[in-house]
Amino acid sequence: MSRIKSAFDRLAAEGRKALIPFITAGDPDAALTVPLMHALVEAGADVIELGVPFSDPMADGPTIQRASERALARGMSLRKVLELVVAFRATNKNTPVVLMGYANPIEAMGLEKFAAAAAQAGVDGVLVVDYPPEEAATFGAAIKAHGMDPIFLLAPTSTAARIEQVAEIASGYVYYVSLAGVTGSGALNVDAVAERLPLIREKTGLPVGVGFGIRDAATAARIARIADAVVVGSRIIEEIEKSTAEAACGKVKALVAEIRRGVDEVKK
Prior knowledge:
By secondary structure, the protein is of the alpha/beta class. The chain is 51% helix and 14% strand. It is built from 12 helices and 9 strands. β6, α8 (160-169) and β7 (174-177) form a beta-alpha-beta unit. α2 crosses α4 (78-89) and α2 runs parallel beside α12 (245-264). The radius of gyration is 17 Å and the shape is globular. The model is unreliable at 181-185 (pLDDT under 50).
């Protein structure tokens, strides 16, 4: 059983919802990434989404774009991201890690080589923003063959046919993008999200995480009432961006712990 499925099974048994924070590997520098990952776990993260920086992150708004630029300027690469996962796994064997990024770095390395290296490093899932499900059968098979979960995005504009395509390939969980836009943009309409989730659940039994636009504990609590997981990214990157390197872990830990409390209000 994968670490991702184990985490969701445990949470379901406890009547709790998952918290999935996102950070960009190498932002603001590689030395801080693993301490930040541990801070996320200490604050209550159930799964960590680790962004692979890319020069043209089309689904990401300005905040995460800047994080990618900072990381790339410091020499971060896909291979170095995997080295960071290895370092994290030296002391944390249980928290699932999902790589989130774009196809170009994977294609440059070679899909099979990447899948083998990611699994060996301790990665649990891979979400590639620009692999459409219609063209992702080979990707999904390679990831699953190495014991990892291929994770896909769904959006407010996703048709029933697209949802079915994702359901056939995906495992671990599916990520519902709450906004028809990039990360960090727009105002989250929780009612609109609630209207869409039943259609997704008709097509797949996988847990559904919701992200984009979640910035505080109150919004996280509202999403946790209707989804299986709450995904938070840009707000955490903002905290890193405005902090000193020395203060970043503490600031991030405090923010994520506050959001964790909001998510756990559902159980109460």
